[in-house]
Amino acid sequence: MVSKVGVLRVVSSEDRDFLECHQRLMEQVCPGKQWESRCLPEQPNGIHDPQTFAEALPKILFLGTTWQRDIDVLVVSCAADPGVGKLRELLNIPVIGAGEACCKMARQYGNVIGILGIEPEQPATFTRALQGCKTLYLRPDNVHCTHDIHSDQGRASIIAAALELQRKGAQVIALACTGMATTDVVSLLAPHCELPVINPVMAAGELLALRYPN
């Protein structure tokens, strides 16, 4: 039985309220679990390009392997799913990636998937998980790392990019950055965009609830 969930955040922070934001979101759709959130050291801007991905990967593997004795399942709360495949090889507990969970949910709404992210190209996990679908990827103007999402300029660019994906024929928008869950981009887009928008953190929580009910 899965009773304790570890939530791995890839953005370094000493702010406990910030660190536990994603676990609180997942708890809304997956109640009845114990939760613990930990973050990577020395990743102040999270993962937003190949260099930060490469820097984070050994830290993710180290944290996962040393943490597994204290938890029943690990959620990597980054939509790029860094290290998820390797962690599944190394650990004796299940590992859920927010990116894969987001893609699973997006597929329920159609096969033309709009993707909003902060990396130069759509994360590889989205390419793999959405094989057979048409994907339309945009990185909003002025959004280059997770912190940009929280600025007024960043939010305006996210709205503009979502409307562009809608114009291009997307049937659903998948958020390829869990920082967009922190700032609640789903609610930001609701007054402006007619498409369903998939929050990767909530998707991970729903997948967790489906696979490991109380």
List the helices and strands and how they pair.
Blueprint: E1 4-9, H1 16-19, H2 21-29, E2 34-39, H3 50-67, E3 73-76, H4 84-90, E4 95-97, H5 98-106, E5 112-117, H6 124-129, E6 134-138, H7 152-167, E7 172-176, H8 179-182, H9 185-189, E8 197-198, H10 200-211
Parallel strand pairs: 1-2, 1-3, 3-4, 5-6, 5-7, 7-8
Pfam families: Asp_Glu_race
Protein name: Aspartate/glutamate racemase family protein
Descriptive notes:
With 214 residues, the chain is of the alpha/beta class. The chain has 10 helices and 8 strands. The chain has helices at residues 16-19, 21-29, 50-67, 84-90, 98-106, 124-129, 152-167, 179-182, 185-189, 200-211; strands at 4-9, 34-39, 73-76, 95-97, 112-117, 134-138, 172-176, 197-198. β5 (112-117), α6 and β6 form a beta-alpha-beta unit. α2 crosses α10. The longest helix has 18 residues, at 50-67. The radius of gyration is 16 Å and the shape is globular. The N and C termini lie close together (8 Å). Pfam families: Asp_Glu_race. InterPro entries: Asp/Glu/hydantoin_racemase, Asp/Glu_race. It comes from Vibrio olivae. This is Aspartate/glutamate racemase family protein.
In brief:
By secondary structure, this protein is of the alpha/beta class. The chain has helices at about 15-20, 20-30, 50-65, 85-90, 100-105, 125-130, 150-165, 180, 185-190, 200-210; strands at about 5-10, 35-40, 75, 95, 110-115, 135-140, 170-175, 195-200.
